[in-house]
TrEMBL record:
InterPro entries: P-loop_NTPase (IPR027417), Sulfotransfer_4 (IPR040632). It comes from the Eukaryota. This is Protein-tyrosine sulfotransferase. SUPFAM superfamilies: P-loop containing nucleoside triphosphate hydrolases.
Length: 274
């Protein structure tokens, strides 16, 4: 019924929650997270251009609306397949604001990956799931993992965001399209969809980014703890090696003692003291 054509970091989570409040049921967020049939079908479509499998999956599970990647890139295929649907293109205040948010998301997720790494490189390490997860970024021209992006990367990402916005405007008829900044709240969205304005505030959902920040902070705390106690690392390593050698030795001695006792060669210590 509703197709979210906005790129990630344009308020897609807030839109998804808003559509749920308006009664549109469930959406693609959980269904298309890896590893799922939807993600596999999306990856196949992005690699080959064949959307048949993806459209069948969406139809079979009965999604009422789709938002965020990878399905935001399939807006034209979805709009053609579901001719009664409406398209909502979420946008940021400007391309630079979007890129700052997108680059931060990538850094929080992949801060350990060296600059110059590309989505295609995941296949070299046998990680097709990560490859498929990041493949949409290649298609909208922002295949980055480190912050800040270098000037060429930044220019490419800004151009990708702007081109996507222009393409959606060009390919979707005006009467089926709403260009929407979530800062605008309920009024334009409800008017476009023909729904009454809810009495609850418009959602400001940024849970995914908050979770990434929490995970990154825990990782940083662990690194700081290691750095504070780095002088103890050699000692701990030697202790672990000592225990690794000692435990089997003790086990072998006790096992041998038990065998000798079982065959009458050695009485238990307690019995000997008695």
């Amino acid at each position: 019924q509703v197709i979210g054509a906005g790129l990630p970091r344009t308020g897609t989570e807030s839109l998804a929650e808003a559509l749920g409040i308006l009664g549109y049921g469930w959406n693609s967020h959980d269904h298309c997270n890896p590893p799922t049939e939807c993600q596999d079908a999306s990856c196949h479509w992005l690699d080959t251009g064949d959307a048949g499998r993806l459209l069948r999956d969406i139809e079979n599970v009965g999604m009422a609306y789709v938002t965020d990647e990878p399905l935001c890139l399939a807006y034209k295929e979805l709009a053609d397949h579901f001719p009664e649907s409406k398209v909502v293109l979420t946008v940021r205040d400007n391309a630079s604001a979007w890129l700052d948010s997108f680059a931060l998301m990538q850094t929080l997720s992949f801060g350990h990956i060296p600059r110059g790494f590309r989505t295609q490189d995941f296949l070299k390490f046998g990680s097709r799931r990560q490859y498929c997860d990041q493949l949409p970024h290649v298609h909208f021209g922002c295949d980055i993992f480190a912050q800040p992006p270098d000037p060429a990367e930044r220019e490419g990402c800004l151009r990708g965001y702007e081109n996507h916005t222009l393409e959606v405007r060009r390919r979707i008829p005006e009467e089926r399209l709403l260009v929407f900044n979530v800062k605008e709240g309920w009024e334009p969205l409800c008017k476009f969809l023909g729904k009454p304005v809810p009495k609850v505030p418009f959602p400001r959902n940024n849970h995914y980014m908050s979770e990434l920040k929490r995970i990154r902070e825990r990782h940083n705390e662990w690194i700081r703890a290691v750095e504070r106690h780095q002088g103890m690392i050699p000692v701990l390593c030697r202790l672990m090696v000592f225990l690794w050698l000692l435990v089997p030795l003790v086990f072998r001695r006790e096992a041998a003692r038990g065998l000798r006792w079982a065959f009458g060669g050695l009485r238990p210590r307690k019995a000997a003291r008695e």
